[in-house]
Structure formats: C-alpha cells, structure tokens
Amino acid sequence: MFEPPEPISARTRFCAVLGQPIKHSASPAMQNAGIAALGLDWRYLAFEVRPSDLNGAILGAQAMHFIGLNLTVPHKLLALELVDMLDESARTWGAVNTIRFEGREGEQAWRPLREFSDAPLEIRSHGFNTDADAIVQGIAEDLDLELRGARVLVLGAGGAGRTAALKLASAGVRELFLINRTPSKAQAVADEIRQLWPAVKVSLDYPTSKIDLVLNATSLGLKREDPSPLDPSRFSLQETAAVYDMIYRPAETTLLKRARQAGCRAANGLSMLLHQGARALEIWSGQPAPIAAMREALWQNVNNA
C-alpha cells in the first residue's frame, strides 16, 4: 500500500530534471513514486533551463548538495563538456542524461552524496547515460522486435537520435537509415557507426523497400498540432512492421496515429522513460528501483492528463 512521503524538512534532499521545454515531463511523478517506495526523504523537481544556463544550473545544484540530476532535450550533448567525470556509459554513447553528485574529505575516495549527512569538503559531478539501454529495453518490451539483423529508419541525429543509432548498431542491426534536418549531423553519426561497427550498413536516405522499424528521436510530436516527422512522400508506413516514438506525451503523436492506421505495431516512449529513470534512481540511491510503483505512476500521469 502506498505510504505518503514525510513533509519536507531541513533534512530533505533533492534531485531534479533540467530541460527546455520541461512542462511535459512525467519524470517527477515517476521518480517521486520511486523515492517514496524506497522510503527516502528526497524530492524530485523539474526546472526549465536554457542551454546557455546549463553550466550554472549544474553548478548551482552541486552547490546546494542535490543528490543528482536528469537532463533532457536539449542538454544531453552539452553536458559532456560540463561534468567533472564521465562514466563509461556516457563516454560510449556520447551523451549525459544522468548526473550523480559525489563528495570526499581530504584524500578519501569519492562517494555519492547520499552517504554524507553534512556537506563534504569537495563535491564533483559524475555523468552517466541510462538512455541507451532503455531504448532497446523499451523496443523489446513494447514491440517484441528482434533487433539483431533488423533494418531500421531513425528520424533525428541529435542527442537522442545519435544515442539511439549507436545503441542499435551495437545491438546488431543489419542496416540503418539516418534522416536529420541537418544532414551533416547524420553524416557524423554515420561515420562513427562505420568506424565502430563496420558490419552495419548505414544510409543517409529513406529506405526503398520494407523495413522492420521506424524510430522517432526528434522533438516533432511534443505539441499536439505537430506534423509527423516522417515525410510520407519519401516513405510509406505501409513499408514498416513497427514504429517506436520516443515521445510519450501526448500518448499518441501524429506519427503513432498514422502508424496504427497503417496496421503497424506502435508504441510511445513511456517504457524507455521508465527504464532510464529506474536506472538513474539506482545510480543515486544504491538500491534496486521499485519498477512497479514507478510504472504505475507514469501510466497514471500520462494517461490521466
């Protein structure tokens, strides 16, 4: 049975998500449910932060002894140069979506701030990426799709799109089609993939035959009036078996609506959000995430909005 959290006090610790825009975020509902289920005297907040203010926001959270941060659009690539330490996950996938603040006294080892009752002498920011694994978990969970050997169209090559393309390549897809508004960004991602996974065929154009998956990693769809990120004159949804939209609010974007009309298996990014958030909470708390409580809070927040 759900127990309400204790009232906020001077002992309460904080986490937050930073992004622009941020009002659509379901992370506070999910993370606060997880925090309550773990019995932690923490709260999770959301702040709209311009890219030019990101460094100041991270330093401010660090100075106020936050436990950690999540970063969403458009901050994941910017943060690579702003944190003090990069985990292997952030180095591998080239983006930071989770920050854990750590402290130490003198020459002692660095430890998560959750382990300090008072502010340590030194504090640093440690960047992680929990998005990459969550992408393949979400696709497997919602679409029952075998990625090894698949042919996939990825829309977007920014922070989310780059991470998705790299992770899909590492998962053994046979062919990737990368589409981005700025072709040079897609070209840079394609070059990375060709160097790291030369067996994966990469194209910077729409496919001309049937594929297994269309994945939207752009922000087109966050507003209900947004058009589909897919150019129907270049590719028909009749030519794909499945569609995964990383956007989760609204629950059905224009792309997903058209995908279902075309008979495709279709899913939004709610499961990806759940798994990346659960891993972030584990990084901050050092405890297994209460997945069931977090999933229920997410579902209620998104579907009852």
Protein architecture, described:
This protein has 305 residues and is α/β, with parallel strands linked by helices. It folds into two domains: 13-129 and 272-303, Rossmann fold, CATH 3.40.50.10860; 133-268, Rossmann fold. It has helices at 27-37, 54-63, 88-93, 131-143, 159-170, 183-196, 254-261, 270-285, 291-303; strands at residues 13-19, 42-48, 68-71, 85-86, 98-104, 111-112, 122-128, 151-155, 175-179, 201-203, 211-216, 240-245, 265-267. Strands 1, 2, 3, 4, 5, 6 and 7 form a seven-stranded mixed sheet that branches. Helix 1 runs antiparallel to helix 9 (291-303). The protein is globular. The mean pLDDT is 95.
Brief description of this entry?
Helix content is 34%, strand content 21%. The protein has helices at residues 27-37, 54-63, 88-93, 131-143, 159-170, 183-196, 254-261, 270-285, 291-303; strands at 13-19, 42-48, 68-71, 85-86, 98-104, 111-112, 122-128, 151-155, 175-179, 201-203, 211-216, 240-245, 265-267.
